[in-house]
Amino acid sequence: MIFEYDKIVVGSCLDAVLYAFNNNCPIFFTKAQRPFRFDYLEPGQDLTFLKAPSRPPKSLTTFEEEKLIGIPKSVLWERLLFLLSLDGKAPLSNLCHTMRYNGDTLVCSNEYSKIFELKFNECLYFGDQSAAGLATEKSLDETTYICYDYIAFNKGG
Predict the structure, then answer these.
(1) Most buried among 25, 61, 78, 133, using CB within 10 Å?
(2) Global pTM value
(3) Which residues in 99-109 are b (16+ Cβ under 10 Å) and which e?
(4) How far from each other are the two terminal CA atoms of the chain, in whole angstroms?
(5) How many structural domains is the chain composed of?
(6) Helices (H) and strands (E) in the chain, counts
């Protein structure tokens, strides 16, 4: 059976999940791309419509200043993906391992066989490592990158 959609979203980054939620589009991905654990929303963001936990802004102290942070972006990502799943807009969730577009249909497969086949009019591609045939150019637009370094101390000295 081939499913048909007008508009789909491919990818699982926060931007893809936000777009799918705001535009009521189905979302397909092969691997969940959670936001980085130290990425936070701006303080004062009102997420009460999502029933997200509200808390007073925390502060991070740097050498230059104190920075206020809101809730982690991963909380927003989890909540939106959960709501999309409840609405039936994430039909494959984490079941798909590879996606292949052959010019007519998008075939989603697990490690053993084809599990889903769909046609679409418009695809918004936010990047997915195991998707083939959707993007013709694979280059980065950004000239600056963020490098995260994490150090854990088990004992003080």
Answers:
(1) 25
(2) 0.83
(3) bebeeeebbbb
(4) 64
(5) 1
(6) 2, 8
Residue 42 lies in a domain: yes
Range(s) of the domain holding residue 125: 3-132
Side-chain-side CA neighbours of residue 127 (13 Å):
9
Q: Which has the higher per-residue pLDDT, 82 or 136?
A: 82
For residue 8, which amino acid is it? Answer: I
pLDDT value of position 157: 59
Query: Considering the domain boundaries, does residue 48 fall inside one?
Result: yes
Has residue 41 got a pLDDT over 70? yes
Torsion sign (Cα): 5, 11, 17, 23: negative
Is 137 part of a structural domain of the chain? no
Residue type, 77: W
Q: Is residue 45 part of a domain?
A: yes
CA-based nearest residue to 99, from 11, 21, 33, 5: 11
Which residue bears the tokens 């982690």?
72
The per-residue pLDDT for range 75-134, each reduced to its tens digit, is 999 999 999 999 999 999 889 999 999 988 999 999 999 999 999 999 999 988 888 888
